[in-house]
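in:
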C-alpha cells in the first residue's frame, strides 16, 4: 500500500475560482448580477486549468447557470428565490471549502 499525497490545486485556479465564488455568492444573495461579474465569471469558465480543477469549475458553472436560468431576477422577492438561494449558497460553500488553504 502506498501513501498518496493530497492533490494540490493550481494557485492561479484557486485565486480565480475563489473570486468567482465570491461574485456568485453576492449575486445570489442580492438576486441580481452586474455585467462586470458576468464578464469575470464567463472569462473564468473559458479557461482550461487541468482535470482536477475543471471538476470544481463544473460545479461553479452549474451554480452560475442555475442562478441565471432559475432565479427570478426581475422580482427579487419571488417565493422561489429563497429556496434556490439556500441551495446555491450551499453548493458554493462546498466549493469554497474545497478551495480553502490546506484542503486542496
Amino acid at each position: 500500500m502506498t501513501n498518496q499525497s493530497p492533490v494540490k490545486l493550481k494557485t492561479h485556479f484557486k485565486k480565480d475560482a475563489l473570486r468567482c465564488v465570491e461574485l456568485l455568492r453576492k449575486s445570489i444573495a442580492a438576486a441580481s448580477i452586474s455585467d462586470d461579474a458576468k464578464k469575470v465569471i464567463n472569462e473564468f469558465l473559458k479557461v482550461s486549468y487541468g482535470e482536477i480543477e475543471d471538476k470544481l469549475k463544473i460545479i461553479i458553472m452549474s451554480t452560475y447557470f442555475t442562478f441565471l436560468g432559475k432565479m427570478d431576477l426581475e422580482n427579487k422577492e419571488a417565493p422561489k428565490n429563497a429556496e434556490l438561494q439556500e441551495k446555491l449558497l450551499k453548493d458554493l460553500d462546498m466549493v469554497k471549502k474545497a478551495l480553502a488553504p490546506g484542503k486542496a
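note: Residues 1-6 have pLDDT under 50 and may be disordered.
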